[in-house]
Specification:
mainly alpha
């Protein structure tokens, strides 16, 4: 349950960020977002359809899907989505508790290093 709730928040935030991504960065951002969200799908926290719908809508908003650029558009979206989703499934996301522990350890190490 905790993982699902965390993943839904991540999905919303990632989709919002992707929707605001400008020309020249949209495909790379789409790839990174889908990969990151697919790691959560690997854990069963998100469904592929949820990720597809959220990122598709975001790319409608940022103009990627309607672009006349040959490297953009629906076919490019699908190719990028499929590739990023497959690669993300191979690296399941850590448990939210593990993430918090890792962040805390990193902060502690940085604090000790600056002393």
């Amino acid at each position: 349950m905790r993982g699902r709730k965390w993943a839904l928040g991540a999905l919303e935030g990632e989709a919002r960020d992707l929707a605001g991504t400008g020309v020249g960065r949209r495909n790379n951002k789409l790839n990174a977002v889908v990969h990151r969200l697919a790691t959560m799908a690997a854990r069963g926290w998100l469904l592929e359809d949820e990720i597809f719908t959220a990122t598709w809508r975001a790319c409608e908003t940022n103009g990627y899907l309607g672009s006349k650029d040959s490297s953009d558009g629906p076919a490019s979206f699908r190719a990028t989505f499929d590739s990023a989703f497959r690669s993300g499934l191979l690296k399941p996301a850590p448990d939210p508790r593990e993430r918090l522990s890792n962040i805390s350890n990193t902060i502690n190490l940085k604090a000790r290093a600056s002393v």
